[in-house]
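pipeline stage [seq->struct] | target=DinB-like domain-containing protein | organism=Pedobacter steynii | residues=172
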Amino acid sequence: MSRTKDHKRILDIADRYRNRLKEIDESTFLLSPPVGGWSYSEVYFHIFDASILSLTEMTNTISGKGESKATAFAVKLILFFGRLPPGKKYKAPKKLAARLRKVSKAEALEMMDEFLSQLDVACEQIKNADRALKTPHPKLGYLNAFQWLRFIEIHLNHHLQQLRRIGRSYLR
């Protein structure tokens, strides 16, 4: 996909997060789901915290920081197909898990707005990125700026599915 298409798809996905946020009352947002796992609040914090950190890495590669490293074939497949392999439960990298916290709906919205603001700036600059320069992802290895953008889209989609699972758990 092109950077323009990836950017547009990320904006569309962010709209889905925003619309979902409007549907959830504050007490449910903060409540841990009956089946265990993260609350809506923790998912929102994680996804936008991780997305902002991913944008930082993307910006680093755009500004010339990084190394010339190979991207693993399995990671190239994930980026090509636009999804994490199915049937596997993924754990957040330790660095991100340690940052996890509950936030209010207002804080989640602020994080989302901050992410979208930074995304627009990074997408304007990405045309200057050297595809050979890559920075490390905690699980996927080295990614260039375009791969970071694609990863952000994949990661956002992955957690939309998690939000659906949380919602279904309240219906049981």
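stage status: PASS
auto-comment: The chain has a mean pLDDT of 91. DSSP finds seven helices and three strands in the chain.
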